[in-house]
Amino acid sequence: MRGGGTLRIGAVTAVAVLMAAGCGGGSHTDIGPSHTPSAAGDGLSLPNLAGQKIEVAAVWTGPEQENFGKVLKEFEKRTGATVIFVPAQDPIVNFLGTKIAGGSPPDVALLPQVGAIRQAVAQKWLKPLGPEARAQLAKNYAKGWQDLGAVDGTPYGVYFKAANKSLVWYNTAAFENAGASEPKTWKEFLATADTISASGVTPVSVGGADGWTLTDWFENVYLSQAGPEKYDRLAKHTIPWTDPSVTRALTTLAELFGKPALLAGGTDGALQTEFPVSVTQTFTGGDRAKAAMVFEGDFSAVNIAQTGAEIGKDAKVFPFPAVGDGGTAPVVTGGDAAVALKDGRAAQALLTFLASPAAARIWAGEGGFLSPNKGLDKAAYPNDVQREIAAALIGAGDDFRFDMSDQMPQSFGGTPGKGEWKALQDFLKNPKDIAGTQARLEAEAAKAYKG
């Protein structure tokens, strides 16, 4: 996260069960027929777009795609437009490049990396926000979130969806049987892992097949241990990956990754486990599950719900532990920004809508969603825990940090099998090779930033 400090939340003890129904595949999803524009009584003014079609691309699937579809359906009702959802592949910048080269870019896309916004602007793909979208952005977003969607002072993106990526979810039955309690520090976290291991359950599930989960592990340790100033500098590559602060963070991670017995399936198993499975295997089988804890964001609740575990009873969550002497518990936040790839009032109208509380309210009520929109009434969230997370995010104002890898060039921080993702997967495989990992990270980062 980028800003002037570290966002913190209190201990989180429950999250409501979230909708887990998926939605069909295919190259396009028609959100529904056009509707007569209607006034919603919330003061938001949108143009009449009857007869117009708008394509929106995002990498969302399953429950995320379904709930975003409800947001788009409301836009249809208000404008008369027909919205078509275009499923995109990750990395989305490559997907968009292919679409643009073929002369068929979508009107709007949701970009999950700050670096992707900068790259798209450098390629002259994006259109700046129009006056109506800018007005909603200025009214509803802290300056820090506005800046994340801007390049050289020009606003391009609206951060519609955010995520808290600093939570550790745990199987309550496994904890109770082991006599374990929620740790607050990294030292306590490792001791808890040993306690659970002694009870006969593997303590930690790691989704190492998805490199982005490993960047989140690193970023949480690094932010807590090195502090926000160093975090910002490493994100901008104004200090190298060979810096001693990176050495310390990798050494800390190796205290866990270097003990295969603490990882579900061992090292090889962790490297073959994708994120969704890393969550579900932690909550399938009660106290005999394959793992007792899994680290990842608030969005993990969707996967937990798929196991039938009752969130708040069978599954609970605590903040990522503070690392090092005097370290504070970190919160790393990610987000998805809506950007326009086509001129015209249709794309701008959708961005204006997505910057409004009216759009955020729809998905917030479905769960599995966190909005940086300060105009959104917290009562829109379905439970007290999500309201607490949202209040902490909004209350932080500009005082927050954004996912580091998402701020970097996508070739380094956001591409499967390459850059930071690959280097950290290699590190998980051989956590003793700290110097070699740093050298590879620096070589890849230097190449990406130069490009």
UniProtKB/TrEMBL annotation:
PANTHER family: ARABINOSE-BINDING PROTEIN-RELATED, OSMOPROTECTIVE COMPOUNDS-BINDING PROTEIN GGTB. Transmembrane segments: none annotated. InterPro entries: Bact_solute-bd_prot1 (IPR050490), SBP (IPR006059). Keywords: Transport. Belongs to the bacterial solute-binding protein 1 family. Pfam families: SBP_bac_8. It comes from Streptomyces showdoensis. PROSITE patterns: PROKAR_LIPOPROTEIN. The lineage of its organism: Bacteria, Bacillati, Actinomycetota, Actinomycetes, Kitasatosporales. This is Sugar ABC transporter substrate-binding protein. It comes from the Bacteria.
